[in-house]
Amino acid sequence: xENSSEDYRIQSFDVDTQKLLKTALxxxxxxxxxxxxxxxxxQSLKHPLFSKxxxxxxxxxxxxxxxxxNGTVFRRHLLNRLQQExxxxxxMRKRSLQEWVGYVTFICNVFxxxxxxxxxxxxxxxxxxxCLMRLAEPDALLNEEEVDCLVLQLHRIGEQxxxxxxxxxxxxxxxxxxxxxxxxxxxxxxxxxxxEILEFRAGGWMLSSTAHKYYYSEIAD
Length: 221
Prior knowledge:
With about 220 residues, the chain is mainly α. It has 13 helices and 2 strands, in the order H-H-H-H-H-H-H-E-E-H-H-H-H-H-H. The chain has a two-stranded antiparallel ribbon with strand order 1-2.
């Protein structure tokens, strides 16, 4: 069934919005793509589970638009909205941790899926790094939800990001190492997650089977 995975992820919307999104996936030039981009971002901020998969929906629309008329209207509106939210990220974090984590998850998801000529989108590199650096600050490391978000994103896009700017990745991991070694008040889970991601990068963005067994049995416990 064509687009069944995307269809499944948009079941949470009202009927009119579902119709709009389904049309955007197949015939993007026939709908208001700015409205579509706003709906996807708004939903990602509200629902963390949606934010994890929304990049795939964006990718499908971008591909459909490029095939239809070589257009980039949806991508432009999406990047504008992401930029707008990025400028207000600190206010967002204070207002709602769920929105903040949803935003970081979504922008990393978009970075993972949307490429230009098979290359990472340069426009997203700085904001993605800034978001991850914020999650590595001492006050964020005290919050397990933020540590979990940071580690998940680094598992997903860390290697890609390092290829684009390895110096910035070094800076991020200096923060994480210092946090692991020096930060007071870390939960045992946060400490375990930080140790795992430090080892994950040191191993060339992979874990040995022994290390994998150790960390994931500890997390399951």
